[in-house]
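Methyltransferase domain-containing protein
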Amino acid sequence: MKYLGNVVNAYKIIANDYLKPGMTVIDATCGNGNDALFLKQKITHSGRLYAIDIQNDAIESTRALLKTNGYDEDENLVLKQCSHETFDFLKSEEVDFIIYNLGYLPKGDKSIVTHFDTTLKSLNSAMYHLKHGGLIFILCYRGHEEGAEEFIHMNSFLANLSQSEFDVLKMAFTNQKNTPPLMWIVERK
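Tokens:
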């Protein structure tokens, strides 16, 4: 395995150091479940994982992958088919970590994509629930029309966050072809 190679590897290197057993985390676009499994393995059975996606296929794929690896749904493993637009299900709960993979479901219907308007609403909700010292990872797949537009709006939004409240890091592979994905990391101070 390459050490870096793509933004998913880079995210896992950083998250691997940050995530601890017992944390509360959200996979805001759980897709095929790979990030949900990685997160649950890091936070263990004692940590709470919310895995959400608007598509039933994504929820079912995530459920199957987690179950195959010994994780059954309970109060610390919550799968929800819903938009990531708001995190109303949290009520007043704070979270340590949130990840977004913006774009479309890999090997799924490419006409169903994330949109900047709902993603921006989601980020506002995420920042409200994020603990001080908590992290948000946003992986942006911008190689398709909606992804390119989402990137423009996300980049502007994140660049204008208050420096006194948040640190924002943008990571991109500058020598890769075909508009490679990039990643932002937001840390609440």
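The helical segments are 7-18, 34-43, 56-68, 116-129, 145-159.
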